[in-house]
Every structure is written in structure tokens, then in C-alpha cells.
């Protein structure tokens, strides 16, 4: 799992107290009241899940607050039969507690947030299609598009419910935990001691935080970023596609270039919207100063590759060549 995105640049969406401001002081009081309700619901979700098998409430509450699966035997690899059964019970309870907590916290969301529909697959496909068409060989493209669209969730309330169900169908509860708090953090319903901190997650599935989906950064598209990670995670052979020797993923990206690849794909996907070549180059040239949501430590390298791509006839090929694994072809031995 790769919770790999830049730190979020948006502030938490609730008022903070400023001395001497009665309105903001009242806002801070309301914030504390709301967070007290959140803490009560965390406790209630842990109690409901623990009651089924008579498990420890503090252990499950700790999981809901930290994501740590620290019950007896978990992850040790040294199970007695009793520990094995206890681990199964706590795993079931932890999954149930996440679903229960999502339901309990939902009542604190604004009505419009609860009723907003899940982002449509066509909206996701529209964003990632230029990248897939530019990077993936022709006979693999439709399968790549189908898989990325089906595995991508935008984390509004309805998208988060679907994403949690998808993640809990696997063995990775940590991803579901991050997804839940990414949603409620965007609405000021996350206790400050719970750290999430990033905009996207990619693994078996890709998840995009709602606040990142709505960003005003003209070079940013986290949907494309996480879709790019799926391209170098997913294997064509798992979907019935013919692969040649040396091929493994839809795009065989060098491990050390994974983030360069994903950041460059998302920024270049914005560049190609600018029509004529000179307009693309001018837009790409402004990226180091105008892009505000990329990591400062990587912006120069990413911007340089995006500008090189903008100047080229086929920019996607430039990005691919800069980041994929270049395998050395061995000459056939000549037997005399």
C-alpha cells in the first residue's frame, strides 16, 4: 500500500480561536463540542464491536484512533490456536467497528455532503484516458482503462462507503482506516491526534481525498497521479492479456522513479489541455512558480521533465522513457 501523496496543503475546515474575537471564540467552542461528539462516537463504535465476542473495548478504540492492529498475536507469526482464534475475532470486530463508526459519524456531516452522489466512472475515465492512451500499448488500453476506473474511488461520503467496503474485502484494514479519517478530516470531524496527512492512496485500489479532487492547483490532478501508480502496480497477465518476455506491468516503471512518474503524469495531463504546442510550452514553463501542491523537494525535477515533454512531439513517450526500466538486450551466443 502506498499512501504516497504530498502533504495536504489545505487547512482543516473549522474555525480556530483568536483572542479578542467573540465570533471566533464561539466557533472554537462549537469545534470542541463537535470533536467531543466525535470522541463519543469512537467509543460507542468500539463498544458495539467488542460486545459481540466479549473483546476489549480499549483495544478496539485504540485501533479506531491509530489504525494499529496490536491485539494479542496480531502480526507475530507465532500463533497458538487460541491466539489464532482471538486474532480472527479482533479482525472481524475491527472491520465492524470501522463500518459502525462511519455510520455514526455520518450524522455529523452536512445533509448535502451525505446526499452527494459518488463520482461517476465516466468522470474518472475522462481524466485518465489521455495518460493511458499515451503510455500503454494499443491492445492493452481498454483493459487498463477498465481496471483503473473500477478501482478508483473519490472520497466524498458515498465514495468513501464504497471504498471502505472494497478495502475491507481484502486483508488490509489500515487502508480502510485512512480512508475513513480522510473523509471526516475534510469536514473538521477528525481529532487532532489522528494523523492522515496525505491526498491519495494506491495499492489494490486508488483513493483520492475529496479536498484534493477539488484543488485549485492548475497543475494538479490526483486522480491521474493515483491512476499512474495503478499502471505500474497492475499486471496485464492477470487480466488475460498476452505479454512478451520482460514485460510485467502495464508500465514497467523503475522503483526509484515511481513518484517522478506519477507527478509528471498528473502535471502533463494538465498541460495537454492547452491546445497548441506553444501554449503547452508556456504553461509548462510556469510550473515551478505556479504549482503549489507538489513537494518542494521534487518540483524542479518534475517541472523539468514536464517541460521537456511539452516541447516534444510525443510528451507521453518522453515521460515513459525517463522513468521505465531499461532492460539490456543480450546478444545471442554464436557457436562456431
Features:
globular, mainly alpha, 336 residues, 15 helices, 3-stranded mixed beta sheet
Helices and strands, with pairings:
Layout: H1 22-51, H2 57-66, H3 81-106, H4 111-115, H5 121-135, H6 141-151, E1 152-155, H7 157-168, H8 173-186, E2 200-202, E3 206-209, H9 210-213, H10 222-233, H11 258-271, H12 277-285, H13 287-290, H14 299-311, H15 315-323
Parallel strand pairs: 1-3
Antiparallel strand pairs: 2-3
Helix pairs in contact: 1-2, 1-3, 3-7, 3-8, 5-6, 5-10, 7-8, 10-11, 11-14, 11-15, 12-14, 14-15
Structure description:
The protein has 336 residues and is mainly alpha-helical. It has one domain (22-323). The chain is built from 15 helices and 3 strands. It has a 3-stranded mixed sheet with strand order 1-3-2, sandwiched between helices. A hairpin with a 3-residue loop joins β2 and β3 (206-209). It is globular, with a radius of gyration of 23 Å. The model is unreliable at 5-21 (pLDDT under 50).
The low-confidence runs, each spanning 5 or more residues with pLDDT under 50, are: 5-21
Spatial arrangement of strands, main beta sheet: 1-3-2
How many structural domains?
Answer: 1
Instruction: Write down the overall mean pLDDT.
Output: 88
Helix and strand run:
HHHHHHEHHEEHHHHHHH
Major sheet summary line: 3 strands, mixed
- Number of DSSP-assigned strands: 3
Helix percent band: 55-70%
> What is the quaternary state of this protein?
single chain
**Radius of gyration, Cα only, in angstroms?**
23 Å
Approximately how much beta-strand content do the residues carry? under 5%
Query: Pairing-aware structural class of the strands and helices?
Result: mainly alpha
If helices are DSSP runs of H or I spanning 4 or more residues, what is the number of helices? 15
Note the overall shape. Answer: globular
Distance between the termini: 51 Å
